[in-house]
Fold C4-dicarboxylate ABC transporter.
Amino acid sequence: MKRREFFKKAGVTVAGAAGAATLASPALSQGRTQWIGVSAFGKAGLLGAAYENFAKTVSTLTEGSLEIKLYHSGELVGGLEALDAVQSGTAQMGYGAPYYWAGKSDAISFVAAMPYGLNAQEQNAWFYYGGGIELADETSYNPLGLKFLPLGNSGNQMGGWYAKDINTVADLEGLKFRMPGLGGEVLKTFGVNVVLLPGSDVLPALTSGAIDGTEWIGPAADLGAGFFKVVKNYYYPGWHEPATVLDAFFDKGAWDSLNDTQRAAIEQAAMATNLGVLSRFQAVNNASLKKLVNEHGVQLKPYSDELLQAIGERTPEVTAELAKKSPEATKLYNSIVEWREGMVQWSGISEGKFMNARTSAPFKTI
Amino acid sequence: MKRREFFKKAGVTVAGAAGAATLASPALSQGRTQWIGVSAFGKAGLLGAAYENFAKTVSTLTEGSLEIKLYHSGELVGGLEALDAVQSGTAQMGYGAPYYWAGKSDAISFVAAMPYGLNAQEQNAWFYYGGGIELADETSYNPLGLKFLPLGNSGNQMGGWYAKDINTVADLEGLKFRMPGLGGEVLKTFGVNVVLLPGSDVLPALTSGAIDGTEWIGPAADLGAGFFKVVKNYYYPGWHEPATVLDAFFDKGAWDSLNDTQRAAIEQAAMATNLGVLSRFQAVNNASLKKLVNEHGVQLKPYSDELLQAIGERTPEVTAELAKKSPEATKLYNSIVEWREGMVQWSGISEGKFMNARTSAPFKTI
């Protein structure tokens, strides 16, 4: 989209007050900008609240020179149409998860999460100090006319809900399971009948037996989704989504026309939101997990070593094939794989070793 | 400090241009504010760069209505005098680590890090969604006339440098070791002669044999400090500092006199800096560790299970005694201990389990 088109579509409402030229105030002399922001998420949840807070913060930081009027999922366009809405100029920014836009790009799913890949801390290190944001832009967002910023992370997800126990590779054969993204591609190679369903259809499908199970997010979101009413076996860990990235995407023309203050406001508020969303998921998951187990009879179960090992050994074959689909996907994949190697080494002897060791300390309140 | 005193000390330089009253521009009508910021850290390192970037960002976000002129360690006052400088009104903000100010507060060291306590993700969850910032203020910073915000995290540190191998509890007896903070208090109970030395004195003390070892931060910072020239045994993990918090502290009167934009600018830039510092440590540690091992002959060694278990069992006794010193310390300690319990449960089945499982996946670049 061209710059002129953007200004028309973005609806610049104040071109500068009459006396503004006498003041050295960029916000006034360059006028006030109104954006429309769309979202793949509903207003009610944790992510809707984070998006509201982000827009409010940008307004406060720019003293109203950049206002983002938000439309959550279904309010202006459907949740999965958010990226289309920005590309068509209906909105100037959107909020979602990169793998929602897999139909638009062979590379973009690798920005979201890689099975057996990076945890949230390592993912953020790659984004901010490993060239990750620039590479996501170059390989995935810029070709779509967009600019990317991370706007939250789920942290390590849960493995999912199963009607029956699964312990062995043989138990996967013929299983009807809902799992989008790269994890689903891996499960297909084990004979799983991978089903893709919009969120609202998952509980009915579980209830009717149309599917044998589903992954979702983590305890807090899963409790709200109510899967515990139908199936009781809740597996961990979420090998398929170790730290799923939420993405903000901006019309590139709109982004480029921001002044320094506006751009800094978005960048700082986005980085703070990235940490805030991860922190909030981390803060609420355990209480929700307790409720699921203690009040709803959910059985918390680890994936067997056999399964974790077999799926882990298969995963790189599947992801490598997907990464060969385009030069952009290959470039992004190689960066993540290289980064992952160093992170597995460092986190293994620091965070990983520490988390195993600390269980020996019997802390009590006094 | 009273508000009037603050304005005098902070040196408000522009009270508003003559014509400003006719404009609805809070930044102009309330004038421009200049602060002085001091630091416990030198300009050259990762933390000095983060502090510079923070101040620059605040200036950009406020369009110059709040300028923070920085003086790094030794430039205006000594690094460990930073908090004194803010309390006396010489500066309006400071940067350091909470345990540097242990002489001022019985509670404040618990804000920094607890041996066998929270990792960085859990620590941030507590700060932002567990009431941690408010509790740190109430118990530790407000009583000193200050307002607190987290401004970075080291992530999991390394265990430290030792001239000789240590494998058993008996090896600790009589050891002369530099370790400040709560970890040092724990080691004392094992007969360690715990030594406190300013950073610049550590390498000379190691060289002369005045100490048998030292902890420092992590591979990147430790490489720069040059300890590898004298001792070669480098132990992990950093049970004593699983995720050390860096603190920003503000004169309470100065903080309270900020307008909404200025306060939001500091809060957002601080939260972004918090994530940025952690991300940068995470990004650079592994390459530094490789250099230490491959180019400088450093021996990377895990603490023995015997030591990790014995120290882990002793730690809560020691920290509980320290937390009994004042009602503020007790209140803060109990909040952290309760939070830790939920986090150990959740992180154990999510992040911890995942990090063990993912090593089976043989990713390669394509």
